[in-house]
Amino acid sequence: MTTSNHSIDDAPLTTFHKKLTAYSSGGPFIDGYALTIIGIALITLEPAMALSTTEVGLVGAASLIGVFVGGGVFGYVTDKVGRQVMYIADLVVLAATSILTAFATDVWQILVLRFVLGVAIGADYPIATSLLTEFLPRRVRGRMIGATFVVWAVGAAVAYLVGFALRDFGPDAWRWMLASPALFAVITLLLRLGTPESPRWLLSKGRTEEARVAIKTVYGDAYDVTDLPDERAVATSYWTVFRRPYLKRTAFVAVFWTAQVIPMFAVYTFGPDLLESFGLTGDANTYGGSTLIAALFVVGGIPGLYLVERIGRRPLLLWSFVVAGAALLVPAVIPGVPGWLFFAALAVFAVSSGASNFLQVVYPNELFPTEVRATAVGVGTALSRIGSALGTYLMPFALQLGAPTALLAGAAVTLIGFVVTASWGTETRGRSLSETSASGSEIGGTAQPDLIQEPRQ
What is residue 228's DSSP assignment? Predict the structure, then answer.
């Protein structure tokens, strides 16, 4: 075996890394687009199929329930069969279900297809981010992984623009809207063709020669498998993430992720309804206002990607919970708040939320070892979607009680996220994957054998 004096964790950032980041961003883009376009499609879908309040909630939540299944199941499958094959397969399913939705004739068909769409979306989180994580140098890992997730908000903003463009297509405009994710899925699929398998995953499965070929293809002849000394052949078990020491890491990821996505999905899915409830009506407000708010999630991500490598993961997450919670609380507690102030509050929420939402994929990829990395991201995705699906389903009922009630609930959820992060969060900035994911490692300069300390008896 050839010996070298390099470390892949400290390898130079190359064109390959940048392309892989761009191609991996396709999944989150489609996620943001597909999960947002449903809120706009409901404007014509609801009267076209005479949907009840319950059916509206189910249509909005169906894909989120699918994400729960897709993440929970296919993260583990990705750890078993590999990142490369799943990197392509989930996009085929995503494109096919989007096209089929355009031909639905009953609400149950839409529910089933949106569920399957969600399964494909949920699968892409662990597939794409684990593959990307295992190739990136540590000094840019948080920023590059985070960039893929900031694109989620770009997809959401594009969805509002497409919805606005298709709004005059008559009572069947919703069909075009729900079929449109297929276009982005096909483009992303074509770009991903030819992506090599993760050498870390290959080594974890004992496929040393294949790992060597992948390393030299990406990094050059100066690198070899010896530059990943901590990767060893191990068995993948789904239950590893639910056992010590990883159970506490799983709980931390699931709770903070859930606390971020519940209010975020409520704003995205029912943004037009929220704006109308505060008197902001007409296309300029419902479409234009929603598009601007979606764009502000992207704006928030820009300083967030800088800060994540400057101040670290934990401080960024804590401060974003504080600001986002306050932004939701203000219009909830001020009686008769004017529409402009409500819009400003949503704008602040979008910027602060966008500044740290990408930590949903950064943290689990850094806190778990290669043999269960995709499983951990998938489980985090799945558990977070329980709350987001429930919140999306209940949102129409909350709006019947008044928008302030819905906003107050969102503020309470962000408070939970802050408390859990303050109690259980840890810092992984600047550490190698072997250091951040190892049981018994020291993270953030403090010995933490279980990462989140047990309370003293």
Answer: -
pLDDT tens-digit readout, 216-249: 888 888 888 887 766 555 567 788 888 887 889 9
Q: In this structure, are residues 126 and 67 in contact, taking their beta carbons and an 8 Å threshold?
A: no
* Overall pTM > 0.90: no
Q: How far apart are the first and last CA of the chain?
A: 50
Provide the angle, in degrees to the nearest 10, between the axes of the packed helices 107-133 and 53-81.
Answer: 30
Q: Would the pLDDT of 19 be above 90? A: yes
φ, ψ for residue 446 (rounded to 5)?
A: -120, 130
Q: What is the mean pLDDT of residues 25-54?
A: 85
Q: How far is CA 70 from CA 65, 108, 181, 212, 378, in A?
A: 9, 20, 17, 31, 8
CB 67 within 8 A of CB 38: no
What percent of the chain shows pLDDT beyond 90?
Answer: 22
Helix/strand/coil (H, E, C) string of 345-374? HHHHHHHHHHCCCCHHHHHHHHHCCHHHHH
CB 137 within 8 A of CB 12: yes
